[in-house]
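CBS domain containing-hemolysin-like protein, pasting as requested.
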Amino acid sequence: MTVALSILTGVVVVLVVTAATGYFVAQEFAYMAVDRNRLKARAAEGDAGARRALDITGRTSFMLSGAQLGITVTGLLAGYVAEPMIGSGLSQLLGGLRVPTGVGTATGALVALLFVTVVQMVFGELLAKNWAIARAEQLARALARSTSLYLKVFGPVVHVFDRAAVVLLRAVRITPVDDVEHAATARDLHRIVERSRDTGELAEDLSVLLDRSLDFTDATAGHAMVPRPRVVGIAADETVAGALAMMATGHSRLPVYGADVDDVVGVVQLRDLLTVDGDRHDSEAGRLPVRGFARSPVIVPTFLRLPQVLARLREAGEEFACVVDEYGGLAGVLTVEDIAEELVGEIADEHDRDDTGEHQVIAERTWLVPGTYGVDEVERLVGHDLPQGHYESIGGLLIQALGRLPEPGDEYALDLFGSSHVDEKGPAPGSLVLQVVDVDRRVPRSVKLTLRPADGAVAAAE
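Structure tokens follow.
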């Protein structure tokens, strides 16, 4: 065999072996990156390739071991072929040019090593990996038959190496797993929604709805309720006429209390009173106490989660619940509408005042929000996580941060460094400034929010 033919044969063999390496690399990444749900859907439609691919993804650890065996063997084979065929051939060519034998041998071996490394890395590893990630489902289905055959033929060998690895893992107190967990936690889903929103793949409105849906199961009655200071109730001894007069202001349901506001004895509804001729104060019906028309109240603790509250309301056939604290006192009231607001945002209802609605955009990175605005809603608004504590509203956060009841004009800056959110449209925010605009009953009624860029970002912008 001539020198040139030897080198050419070596190059061809290396390329063929590299293609085999690429096959195993593509196999490894395709089955790790593929969407199993899409495979299940295709398999349900009768796609044989998807069905075989789905079977392989159910044995992730075994498949990875088989792919690693193939990658290792083909990598070693490429190196084994390169030196005697390519390296020796180059050494002979250099010898013909009167290059010293030692230099020629070293140069030939080095060139052969570089050639194999570059070809294996670029074509056998990187190209195959990126292709598999970009076309995971397509490749997973295309490689399913050959992968199944490979694992069946070389399964015993793969099993030996797999068992050896398991023994070593258990020796260092690590429990091996046969499959990769593809389930996502709520926190993982939040990150997925956030990334999809930031890249523009998910509409802003839809991302907010998904965020709220993920938070819904953890939200409590105390979080969603109308707080006690905003609750309008009626004494049990009040007349029907008096109740109708109160309902004329826009309330369709009123909690009925006995000795005091904390002693909730029932709930009176407008529709129950409309059948009574009580709109005239001088009528006999109008002078009847509302106690006789009150329904049994649905009473829930503040810490009860909203799905459980809904179940209680559904079971009782009611739409109104009274929320009590750990001491038995009335903490607030909760309607189905309030629960719906946790999913779709603020809905104008009988309990809402003008200052309890949505936020107002004052300027870029500046908003005006009610003091009762939920901390979770502020987080969605500014795109940053805020400190958590024993409060539900931005007003409560301000009170805890200041350590006192605030006054109009009070400011507090929250450090936002370390937040996972990255705003690509402007300077990275360094703090969120909370300013009390006005107060009501000694607590913030409205709060001005300002995202302040970090000092370095401001200097760069200037």
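Note for the archive: The CA atoms of residues 354 and 376 lie 21 Å apart.
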